[in-house]
Amino acid sequence: MTLSGERLTCLRGDRLVFRDLDFAANPGRALVLTGPNGAGKSTLLRLVATLLEPRAGQLLWQGRPVAEDPDRYRAAIGYLGHLDAVKPTLTVAENLAFWADGDRAAIDRALDAFALADKAPLPARFLSAGQKRRLALARLTVKQAPIWLLDEPTTALDRRSTALFAAAVANHLAAGGLAMIATHVDLGLETVDRLDLAA
Description:
- Helix content is 32%, strand content 27%.
- It is an alpha/beta fold and 199 residues long.
- The longest helix is centred in the C-terminal third of the chain and has 16 residues, at 159-174.
């Protein structure tokens, strides 16, 4: 289930963000993206999520070019960008149910994993910024996608919530999933590779 990029080149407008970039993200491991602001971490994640097209190069998943079957690949992705994408009029539980395909047990596990069980009946508009972020992260666990693409996932999280998130990532990796994470926070994960976009 390796996810890799070969000689990726990306332009944003007239600006070259990166050129001839290679990477490999492997099952059971997190690929942590590092580098200063503007180095291209968010751009790379958006490209890997197929939200942007590379100018050159290709993405491969399970040894096949993503371009051959992009819908199959997209179904395997859980992507979290800077926005939480929480529906404010739905309750916390309803937000998760949208992604859980009727799996009530998965919803309950996600609520417990992110300390949101007591918030389940509450409309999401009443959540704090940190609680909304935890809800967005909980959505990843109910979707059960093997590939997690996470852009600064600990934004608005306190230390306890960051620890909950790190535990969820560790469980995902232990189950054979993979993750690409742009973060400046040390999550204490044991199975980590790094890609420095400033290099």
